[in-house]
Design a protein that fits this description.
Strand order of the largest sheet of chain B: 1-2
Number of helices of chain B: 5
Shape of chain A: globular
Strand content of chain B: 5-15%
Number of strands of chain B: 2
Oligomer: heterodimer
CATH architecture of chain A: 3-Layer(aba) Sandwich
Strand order of the largest sheet of chain A: 2-1-3-4-5
Distance between the termini of chain B: 59 Å
CATH topology of chain A: Rossmann fold
Number of helices of chain A: 4
Shape of chain B: flat
Largest sheet of chain B: 2 strands, antiparallel
Helix content of chain B: 55-70%
Largest sheet of chain A: 5 strands, parallel
Largest interface: A-B, 15 and 13 residues
CATH class of chain A: Alpha Beta
Order of helices and strands of chain B: EEHHHHH
Strand content of chain A: 5-15%
Mean pLDDT of chain B: 87
Helix content of chain A: 25-40%
Number of domains of chain A: 1
Distance between the termini of chain A: 20 Å
Radius of gyration of chain A: 15 Å
Radius of gyration of chain B: 28 Å
Number of strands of chain A: 5
């Protein structure tokens, strides 16, 4: 796999839309020395305006719908949405909650899904690489 | 153009202008390295407030009035009655002016 068009480091903005923090802890594990994705240039940033990837954890609670849409709109193009955890796909342990509006892909378009409760760090890294490839293709299309 | 120099102080307008131009050039270079593909008039150019709706500039800035909070709090015994007198109605101010002028004239008449 070669990455040509998208030569920059991959910046990821993490948004928690009501997660139990299990997935968030696994994301932190990805950044620890055991996995250390920063050596590949993958870093978490503090603003969606600086990000290439929007990483969403958790089902979407009612209060988070407008926030999620706004944050998604603030990520510059080309962008990829990475959804981590089962509850963002079908509710998970929050299934049938009165306050649940998700899944995530009913509110914003999702490019890569990472199932699991929580998913292993290796799965998250693989998903980020898939997101990177997708960004690569998007960047190539823009160049062409 | 003479430089100002005494002790540890040195100031020369030419040096100052050159330093200013260099700093501005560096700032412009750093700014030019930024993202250029933002879509104008969309949320992409708005301030990021943790996903919250961005209020108007007047509402999101810290008001200059806040700087005087300590002073006003300390002297509120004086400010509260005087603030009530500031009605914003010009007739009230003219009445105050006339009354103070009359009182001053009376005092000056008595003293003299």
């Amino acid at each position: 796999m070669s990455l040509k068009a998208f030569k920059r480091a991959l910046w990821v903005y993490h948004l928690n839309t009501g997660s139990c923090n299990g997935c968030d802890i696994e994301i932190l594990a990805v950044l620890t020395p055991r996995y250390d994705v920063e050596r590949f240039g993958i870093i978490l940033v503090g603003s969606p305006r600086h990000a290439d990837v929007l990483l969403v954890t958790g089902p979407v609670s009612r209060q988070m719908v407008t926030r999620l849409k706004r944050v998604y709109e603030q990520v510059p193009d080309p962008k990829v949405v990475l959804q981590v955890g089962s509850c963002g796909m079908e509710g998970g342990v929050f299934y049938e909650s009165y306050n649940l509006v998700g899944p995530v892909d009913q509110i914003i378009p999702v490019d890569v899904y990472v199932p699991g409760c929580p998913p292993r760090p290796e799965a998250i890294i693989e998903a980020v690489v898939k997101a990177w490839v997708k960004l690569e293709r998007a960047a190539e299309q823009r160049i062409a | 153009m003479a430089a100002l120099e005494f002790g540890y102080i040195f100031w020369n307008p030419i040096v100052w202008v050159i330093a200013f131009v260099v700093v501005m050039a560096v700032a412009y270079f750093l700014r030019s390295r930024g993202q250029k593909k933002y879509k104008k008039d969309t949320a992409q150019t708005q301030i990021f407030l943790c996903g919250e709706e961005v209020p108007e500039a007047e509402r999101r800035h810290v008001k200059a009035h806040n700087v005087y909070w300590g002073l006003l709090q300390t002297l509120k015994g004086y400010y509260n009655p005087t603030t009530k007198a500031h009605t914003g109605i010009i007739n009230d101010y003219i009445i105050w002016f006339t009354a103070i002028a009359a009182a001053t004239a009376v005092i000056l008449f008595i003293v003299s």
